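Sample pair:
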Amino acid sequence: MQKKSIRLTLLGGVNEVGGNTILLEDLEYNVKVFLDFGIMIKNYKNEYERDQYPSSIDEMVRLNLLPNGDRIPIENLYIKEFKFVKQNMKPRISNNDHINDNNYPSNLDGIFISHPHKDHYFGLSFINRNIPIYTGVVTKRIIRAFCKSAKDSIANNFNGLNWQTFRTGDIIDIKGMKVIPFHVDHSVPGAYGFIIYTSAGPVVYTGDFRRHGPLSNMTEEFLNEIKTHNTILTKGET
């Protein structure tokens, strides 16, 4: 039997609302990417009262709010130099918008964020700053605005991330695997779906979308583009 050339691991967002985290591995291209990296906001709020915050990444993993990096084939998924200073509620980490030299190299080739809702991006606060974060231009702006307006904590630190922004029409090439973002309508601006041209054929990740909003024509353009594709990962508002 011929070995399959791609593998999908659903680590969140299955039979639940939110927490979307999907690992896509292309074994032929030797590519590993996450599609969204959210957390279950409801579960997070059940664990932490207002003005309470997690004290470590290990704590978040133990509570199943973040994937266990030891159980997936990703090296150095999380930031190494993340120390929470409880006196002033600030994490010790570079506040500059550049790759953090204190983190080790990772074999994860990137994380694609579909839109700026917390259940799709909130886990980025804990990510190794050497890992590329692919987002739309507007998504990055909204995440950074949230970071500036919310209280400093270990769960609200999106500085120093290795941002790689895109717009509709861009083609992102990762070791031969091409990813094409398509705008869709959603309840927040800057939402995208993705067509991923793997070695085994196209894989579609819709992110969240809706067909009844003021920009529903964008969603219809995307749906028309993907109607001939067979492998579709979807979770949207209809």
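Helices lie at 41-47, 57-62, 118-121, 137-149, 216-226.
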